[in-house]
Amino acid sequence: DIYVDKPPLHFWLIAGSYKIFGVNPFTARLPSSLGAIGFVLLTFFFVQRRFGSTRLAFMAAVMLLSAYDFLWWARRTRLDMMFAFLFSASLVCFYCGSEEAVRKRKALWYLAFWFVTGLAFMDKAFIAFANLLVVIPYSIMAARNPQGRRISPGLFAATSPCLLPVVLPWVLALTNHPQFSAY
């Protein structure tokens, strides 16, 4: 079923979890828990890459795990944890792409940014594009003052069509839904 007020990713993840493990509270919560695990691993990866310290990365991941609200949201059947993970992953992908010196790897990071942004859109709709409120000003600033920054705005824009295969099927199904005009 197509719901006109919510994107489908969260529902698909729960349905897939039900199909694999059966219908129960654990499987309903599994996508949020996996998003939380992904967030902890993303934190470790980013801190390790940014600061070059495994110890610091481990401490950052443990600090995230020790936050009460983080664990509370990880146990809920809401889409917030998966969205937080995907949104943060998109920003990490952009950062890694902007710091990459090799053009081919830079393009892969930018493609990952758009792909993960598409997944975030499929989880929570248009708020997923709020990452552009960070990325675009950062790119403009870096283009004006490039000290050590390797931003490639043209390459970043050229990789943006990677977003379409992720979001277009749902957008087309949504616009053809009988309740779309009322929505």
Q: What would you say this structure looks like, in words?
A:
- The model has no long low-confidence stretch (mean pLDDT 91).
- The protein is built from nine helices and no strands.
- It is mainly alpha-helical.
- The chain is flat.
State which percent range the strand residues make up. under 5%
The N- and C-terminal alpha carbons lie at a distance of 16 Å
Major beta-sheet overview: none
Structural class: mainly alpha
Mean pLDDT: 91
Task: Name the features.
183 residues; mainly alpha; 9 helices; flat
In short:
The protein is mainly α.
Secondary structure elements and their pairing?
Elements: H1 9-21, H2 25-51, H3 54-65, H4 68-74, H5 80-99, H6 103-124, H7 132-144, H8 153-158, H9 164-175
